[in-house]
Amino acid sequence: MTKTPQTADVADLPIDAVRPPRPGRWIAAVVAAFALVWLAYTIIVNENLHWDVIAEYLMDGRVLGGLWVTIQLTVLSMVIGLALGILAAVMQLSGSPVLRGASALYTWFFRGTPLLVQLIFWFNIGLVFPSFGIGVPFDGPKLIEWQANELITPFTAALLGLAINEGAYMAEIVRAGIRSVDPGQREAAEALGMSHRQVLRRVVLPQAMRVIIPPTGNQFISMLKTTSMVSVIAGAELLTVSQRIYLGNFEVIAMLIVASIWYIVLTTIASVGQHFIEKRFERGHHALQVRVRRNLRPFSRGNA
Amino acid sequence: MVEPKVKIRSVRKCFGSVEVLKGISLDVPEGGVVCVVGPSGSGKSTLLRCVNRLETIDSGRIWVDGDLIGYAEQGDRIHHLRPAQLCRQRQDIGMVFQRFHLFPHRTALENVMEGPVVVKGVARGQARKRALELLDRVDLADRADHYPAQLSGGQQQRVAIARSLAMDPKLMLFDEPTSALDPELVQEVLAVMRDLAASGMTMMVVTHEMGFAREVGDNLIFIDGGVIVEQGHPRDVLANPRHERFRAFLGQVL
User: Fold this and answer.
1) What is the crossing angle of helices A61-92 and A97-112, to 10°?
2) Contact A198/B118, CB-based, under 8 Å?
3) Whole-prediction pTM value?
């Protein structure tokens, strides 16, 4: 018979317990591993995939040019979309019914119509408004005037469509972020004598960012891929150039894989960036943050 | 006669159809400490929030240092102040909240610097020096780089007091400053307020701390149902409460 240890001895005894067997988990792991290997094998040995063509075109000048346009479209439409979203959200929360109505109309319309339709519409805006000008409203004399056909290139049409559509979604995200901030924060700032603008910029928005950033990161990643819709108006981004190339060399699948590889590279980089930005805005929200903040020195503006 | 620091006359305030203040008149002399007590829902916090215009009033007048709060009288008409003028008035009135409301994304030091730097445009270096002095005054110099989430309730409230003092206010409003604190943390906040009163600060304190009111207050106001039911020197009114409602209230809190 083994002697039962006394309390004093137990304190020094390490736990080295045997885990119960989990056969279900082992079987599932074997099945999943087999499926992965089999999938990889069929892809690698499949001669219809033309890996040599994929390798040849991955760094092709035209593809890289398209990649650059995709990045530009994504960044610019997210920046403009975020600005529009903040504006629409602030209008939505304002005291004026006219501003609230204008903001509601904007989100209602652009969330209610398909992006694809909006893109084609912006590309053909010249059919509705043949020219744009600055001057006296309501058909008064114009100081400067542009022809729509010159102004609306595939790129500007794509940017208009993507940014304005994005703004409608960002408005909802920003509004939810602003509403998540404790009303007491606003009161404390007002009691210090801050103006509305100072309260928003110094107190409300920095705290709203914590709620706004994660979905905005998702929107950014989503936008990287949404830019491919611009191919319907020949936007010269990644998918458009890939299509142009396969219309010449008939390597449809290979060119789509080339485009997909770049999309995955971009979204992966964006996901990593999102992770670090989220950490940055977690400031002050849990006990670990002082250490996190030190680790992120390069990201923080110098606090005197 | 010396003009009182705070002059409140016939103030009424409704929330919808509920009248929470039914004609309150009150003077706070320079350097005076007024303690406002009353059952919850009596309107005592609302009264305080009207003084720095976090709430608008429906009738009556409030003056702080001779300035009419929230309005300007021109001829026989009364005008709303413009937002910038309202901000100017609030700069001189510090407010401490029941739930602290420190800015969670800024350290204790940054919280105290925020008002002077953003509102008054004080240089960062100078604001920082003054903020460190104030944190030292509330005995938190060693917590300057902590975020609010890393501080106890009592420490947060002391930082909040320092944040208000950084604006060099003429008047400090305390809205139940110890009600959200664990019992053992109440005294450290009251000690800071006691020092502040001793330094000559004009204070309006909504509180349930009768001991503090007795010791530090010059005037005790009991509000119930939106009217002042009883007032006088704390030692007198606490020893000889005249109104039945005040006696009942004291019976519950003491």
Assistant:
1) 150
2) yes
3) 0.79
pLDDT given for residue A234 in this prediction: 86
A187 touches chain B (CB under 8 A): yes
Tokens coding A261:
């590889």
Residue A260 lies in a domain: yes
Confirm whether A101 is domain-assigned. Answer: yes
Q: Does A249 touch chain B (CB under 8 A)?
A: no
> For chain B, which residues make up each domain, given as ranges?
6-252
pLDDT tens for chain A, 304 residues: list them: 455 556 666 677 778 888 888 999 999 999 999 999 999 999 888 888 888 899 999 999 999 999 999 999 999 999 999 999 999 999 998 889 999 999 999 999 999 999 999 999 999 988 888 887 787 777 777 778 888 777 888 899 999 999 999 999 999 999 999 999 999 999 999 999 999 999 999 999 999 988 998 999 999 999 999 999 999 998 889 999 999 999 999 999 999 999 999 999 999 999 999 888 888 777 666 544 444 444 444 444 434 3
Q: A286 to chain B, minimum CA–CA distance in Å?
A: 7
A105: exposed, middle or buried (Cβ count in 10 Å: 0-12, 13-18, 19+): exposed
Chain A interface mutation, best of B69, B81, B101, B129, highest count of A Cβ atoms under 10 Å: B101
Indicate the number of domains in chain A: 1
Q: Is A188 on the interface with B (CB under 8 A)?
A: yes
Q: Do A191 and B90 touch (CB under 8 A)?
A: yes
Dist CA A261 CA B96 (whole Å): 57
Q: Which two tokens stand for residue B135?
A: 């944190």
Residue A173: partners with Cβ closer than 8 Å, 6 or more residues away: A85, A212, A215, A216, A219
Q: Domain with A217 in it: what CATH number?
A: 1.10.3720.10
The C-alpha atoms of residue B171 and residue A107 are separated, in whole angstroms, by 45
CATH code given to domain B6-252: 3.40.50.300
Domain extent for A64: 57-134+144-290
| Across B184-208, average pLDDT | 95
Report CB contact under 8 Å: B147, A284. Answer: yes
CA R_g for chain B: 18
**pLDDT score of A300:** 41
Measured over the CA atoms of residue A164, residue A167, residue A172 and residue A173, the dihedral's sign is positive
Q: CB neighbours of B185 closer than 8 A, spacing ≥ 6?
A: B152, B153, B154, B178
A175 lies in a domain?
Answer: yes
Name the CA radius of gyration of chain A, rounded: 27
| Tens-place pLDDT, residues B132-154 | 999 999 999 999 999 999 999 99
B53 backbone φψ class: left, alpha, beta (φ>0; ψ -120 to 50):
left
CB spacing of B95 vs A202 below 8 angstroms: no
